[in-house]
Amino acid sequence: MDGQMTGELHTPEENEIIGTVARFVKERVRPYVQQLEREGKYPQHLVGEMMELGLFGLAVPESYGGLGARIPVLAIILEVLGSGWATLAAYVNSHSTVAYAIATHGTEQQKSRYLPRLATGEHRGALCLSEPGCGSDLQAIKGLAKDAGDHYDLVASKTYVTNGAKATLLLTLVKHPAVAGETKPKISLLIVEKAYPKVSVTSTFEKTAFHLVDTVQIEMDGVAVPKAQLLGPAEGMGFPQLMDSLEIGRVAIAASAVGVAANALSEAKRYASERVAFGVTIDHHQAIQMKLADMATKLVGARLMTMEAASAKERGGRCDMITAMAKTYASDCALEIAHQAVVIHGGAGYIRDYVVERLHREALLYTIGEGTNDINRIVISRRMKGEEEMQYLGLLP
């Protein structure tokens, strides 16, 4: 992976970081993934090396000890990680969204307190958004933060929290009690330290894939959260803060999905060049050639759209449409490419000894997480009603 492949121009320092991560994946990750998956042990040694490389500080500004990576560079690094082992990308994704939210919307006190330790990985961030029965309808959350003088009395039940067991900081979406005259209650984000009393992990969910990435339910039963932990200067800003931050999350998910797709295509291409059927390797058969060509085309299209979304986010302004497009298209392509990689492997593709069996299971998650693809399609269709989006798409009025 380099700047020419992505169409991006990078500084020598950025190329060095990308190259270092690529070597880490090639030498320390790819040869051992299948064994690590079979053992089922949390890869602390690799997480430690990721900390040393500064990967938990991708979204933390340099002034607070992070890499301060530009968003296109962040996307490339997550693609590289995803192409080696999507589990490692998952450790960084939501953590980076939390770091971005604090760096962009937090108070100076919050930045100084949390960003340096997020950069080193001493603090690990997780998003506490979804609640049982709410799913993607975040406006329907019931988690409540009542004013209790110098603190909030927080009662919330958050589910499907990625990295929630390992996290130390929980960026939590809450409502405030409705006030007379308000049409609807305010929604805010709180920085909840998991060490606070009455915060507990109550369930761990077993998933189809990503078994070494914990997904948990977290209960906050009357947690006293200091008011200084309110993200930003005032209550009621949580939804715009979250939507801005989730655009980073969509870029990260899209890039990780591209990495999985690249891995699947690499495995399919290699297998097709080795497997002999009817006297020749199967990459001589036109049916296989056409599959590989379609897979390669979708891979490049997904990568280009992801980089366009990353560049649009870096330029500033509203970019929920293009980030939703990138997340949806990249994850759909990853699932299709992984599926075709299994088909090319034939019966072997359904055996756990082969990498593509795992990649097929991993790719499915990307169509569900960070907003299901159907939810993202709704975002896209609604934004298409705007004049700016019409111009972006080159559509006539």
TrEMBL record:
Q: Where is the Acyl-CoA dehydrogenase/oxidase N-terminal domain?
A: 11-122
Q: Which residues form the Acyl-CoA dehydrogenase/oxidase C-terminal domain?
A: 236-384
Q: Which cofactor does it need?
A: FAD
Q: Name one Pfam family in it.
A: Acyl-CoA_dh_1
- Answer whether the UniProt record assigns the keyword Oxidoreductase to this protein: yes
Keywords, in A-Z order: FAD, Flavoprotein, Oxidoreductase
Domain of life of the source: Bacteria
| Record carries keyword Cytoplasm | no
Ranges for domain Acyl-CoA oxidase/dehydrogenase middle = 126-223
Q: Would you identify the family this protein belongs to, as annotated?
A: Belongs to the acyl-CoA dehydrogenase family.
The record, for PANTHER family, names: ACYL-COA DEHYDROGENASE, ISOVALERYL-COA DEHYDROGENASE, MITOCHONDRIAL-RELATED
What is this protein identified as?
A: Acyl-CoA dehydrogenase
Q: Which organism is it from?
A: Mesorhizobium escarrei
